[in-house]
Amino acid sequence: MATAQQIKNGYIDYVLTHDEKPKSVYAFVKKLKISEAEFYTFFTSFESIEKNIWVELTVETINTLQQEEVWAAYSSRDRILAFFYSYIEVLKRQRSFITYTLKHAKGSFSTPAALSGVKPIFEHFAEETINEGLESGELADRKFFSKRYKDALWLQFAFIVNFWLTDDSDGFEKTDEAIEKGINVTFDLFQRSPIDNLFEYGKFLSRNGPLKEKMKF
After folding, report:
1. Distance CA 182, CA 83 (A)
2. Domain ranges (residues) in the chain
3. So what's the pLDDT on residue 108?
4. Tens of pLDDT, residues 143-154
5. Of 107, 154, 166, 211, which sits most exposed with the smallest number of CB within 10 A?
6. What is the pTM of this model?
7. Any idea of the CA torsion for 86, 117, 103, 158, to the nearest 10 degrees?
8. DSSP labels, 37-52
């Protein structure tokens, strides 16, 4: 009986050798010397294999981080930074395959099919992290905009992964720099700023406008 890991390994080997998907499930399982029934026990299509691999890498990264003793002491900013630094390390193990899946993704502004399982997992992780930051006061709770913070982090996800795929610096040093600068700028925007103080002051004046009529100079 074949295992899910054997099928995944066989698929990875095939696409990296041929730079394309197998012509059919029948041809693929014949090469692996397993039955179609064994394939469909674990996967519904080749796309589901790619989706599963991305999901496993993402879940592994989050679970490993959350089990570290220092995790509870991290700020929201530090948690997101730790995620991306660790995620790139995990992706390095499958760099050729990661490159293949994104290179063959259909060009559009939508999320590639291979990442469709990753997006809700990452957004849930990001939302939990952001909510803790909002509760602690680390991040500014802005009406309407706070709910969009996770979307900004998903854009950073896409940017960082694509930056890494084209990074030719030694040890991917430029990717580390891109993570540091990108996440820090994003979290600077999430935190309170003089604009927030000005907005709060404007709300105060609008609520207490009649007071100005009583003021004498």
Report:
1. 13
2. 1-44, 47-202
3. 52
4. 778 899 999 999
5. 107
6. 0.87
7. -50
8. HHHHHH-SSHHHHHHH
